[in-house]
Amino acid sequence: MTADVQExxxxxxxxxxxxxxxxxxxxxxxxxxxxxYAVQREVIERRTRRxxxxxxxxxxxxxxxxxxxxGVDDVIWGLLTDAMLAxxxxxxxxxxxxxxxxxxxxLIGREVRSAAxxxxxxxxxxxxxxxxxxxxxxxxxxxxxxxADNASAARFGFGAWHAPRDLSNVGLLMEIDGRPxxxxxxxxxLGDPARSLRAAARLALDAxxxxxxxxxxxxxxxxxxxxxxxxxxxxxxxPGSAAWR
Length: 245
Ligand code: 0L1
Ligand code: MG
What we know:
- The protein is of the alpha+beta class.
- The protein has one domain (5-244): Fumarylacetoacetase-like, C-terminal domain (Fumarylacetoacetate hydrolase, domain 2, Alpha-Beta Complex), CATH 3.90.850.10.
- The chain is built from 5 helices and 12 strands.
- It has helices spanning 5-18, 33-49, 64-70, 143-148, 193-206; strands spanning 54-60, 76-81, 90-91, 99-108, 122-132, 153-158, 171-176, 179-185, 216-218, 226-227, 232-233, 235-236.
- Strand 7 (171-176) and strand 8 form a beta hairpin.
- The radius of gyration is 17 Å and the shape is globular.
- The relative contact order is 0.22.
- It binds hexanedioic acid and magnesium ion.
- The site of hexanedioic acid (0L1) has 11 residues, from strand 1 and strand 5.
């Protein structure tokens, strides 16, 4: 059966609203990658029609291991809105089965007109985190499912901005509620998170979306996400803390 973009968007919205995981969409419908991005865009457009503002882009499948696992050879992307941004402690109580991962975060300073110029458009870099919350049962999905689900995006946060710098091989430490939860190297993000930034620009431009001044790019994480404790969580890297070494 051909994908009904409106109906699938409504199904995903229902999972968020009811805080209830759903069977993956591909269990009951044919969904190819272009249709999956159409569903993702529809869900985001509904959010912006309700008053949320686009805040940036997030990347996924930036590690070779994850690409092999999913049988893909390119990254995926999703869109961030201001409602996903957590200031201070992140409230995960309304989520289904949240997981959390550290992020290299880029702040866009001027409009990105081509992938090649993406790095020169960066005004700042920070360490941050992303809370993922797949809307699917067991956090299990195919490539089109996860694209339709906005690459599992749920919440994000970041610390103090720093001047742009070489982040091709920096250590990342993520703490949850003050306890070390994950370490990794930024080199595991496509060999250099700047590649993820360029890919974000490429995918966005191909879709007719320009990375604008003030937007955030989450370059993704070196390792699979960690389980997130219920309730309110203080994730570090958090505002004010630096965690690259
Ligand atoms: O790197 C990421 O933000 C993950 C995107 C893919 C979705 C997932 O693993 O839940
Ligand atoms: Mg991420």
